[in-house]
Design brief:
By secondary structure, this protein is of the alpha/beta class. Helices cover 37% and strands 16% of the residues. Helix 4 runs antiparallel to helix 5. The N terminus is likely disordered. The structure holds S-adenosylmethionine.
């Protein structure tokens, strides 16, 4: 039986398009200035966030990937607004899953997301070169195209939509195109630890991909402050 929206008002049964901002990325992925200014960075999924734009604005190199980049700017603008509203409805429905204290409350946080989305949409309308319509687990890049791949709020968050085999393929693909991959968070949308993480890490280790968990100073969702770092064993050092 399919779930009706009324039966599960808080469920994220399809992937939400969100617009976290540059400062949130810095916190989720512990990004320092040197990395931001010198690394070739893949943002996957980029969603409607302003990270790629802000990196390029400061002279760095970032490319964003997301299947929503198939949309023309006008259609994407409408979609992003609908998704902002959907995110706000969810925050009202399940307030225990959110901590807005660090940003001054829900209203302030929504304004932050709106501002990030506006920056993204202006950049997207001006120059689509850095926004690629593609989807995990297949990326249109050669091996080692990036120094760092950032994977915010897709893998593990939607544990119910993507099965363990998909997650393994997606991580292997990210490690193929980037020397280092950082995935945040390692919990699902309800803040529960991703149950297949130990098995995934064992599978990746067997395939020569080393992983470690690092603390992240980002607390939008209580209990989610860890980031998974992955590197192919042969690439632990430059
Ligand atoms: C929760 S948003 C994250 C956006 C942004 N990085 C952030 O943290 O706010 C998840 C994004 O994943 C995208 N997405 C869905 N399926 C995907 C796939 N198979 N590969 C890459 N991106 C995907 C969605 O379009 C959506 O924009």
């Amino acid at each position: 039986m399919s779930k009706s929206v009324d039966a599960a008002p808080a469920a994220l049964d399809r992937v939400l398009v969100t617009s976290r901002d540059f400062a949130e990325y810095r916190a989720m992925f512990a990004l320092d200035d040197t990395t931001l200014d010198t690394a070739r960075i893949l943002d996957c999924p980029g969603g409607a966030g302003d990270f790629g734009f802000r990196v390029r604005e400061r002279g760095g190199r970032a490319v964003s990937v997301d299947p929503i980049y198939a949309l023309e700017p006008a259609a994407l603008t409408l979609r992003v607004q609908e998704e902002l509203d959907r995110g706000v409805r969810r925050a009202h429905a399940v307030p225990h899953l959110y901590d807005f204290s660090w940003t001054g409350g829900l209203a302030q946080y929504v304004r932050r997301r709106e501002r990030a989305a506006q920056r993204f949409l202006v950049d997207y309308a001006l120059d689509r070169e850095n926004y690629l319509d593609a989807a995990l687990p297949d990326l249109p890049f050669p091996d080692g195209a990036f120094d760092l791949a950032l994977v915010p709020n897709l893998l593990f968050v939607y544990a119910g939509l993507f099965d363990p085999a998909w997650h393994r393929r997606a991580v292997a693909e990210l490690v193929r195109v980037a020397r280092e991959v950082r995935i945040h968070p390692v919990t699902d949308a309800d803040g529960r630890p991703y149950p297949h993480l130990p098995a995934l890490r064992a599978d990746l280790a067997a395939a020569g991909i080393g992983t470690s968990l690092v603390e992240a100073d980002y607390r939008l969702h209580p209990g989610t402050q860890r980031t998974l770092v992955c590197r192919a064993a042969g690439r632990w050092r430059r």
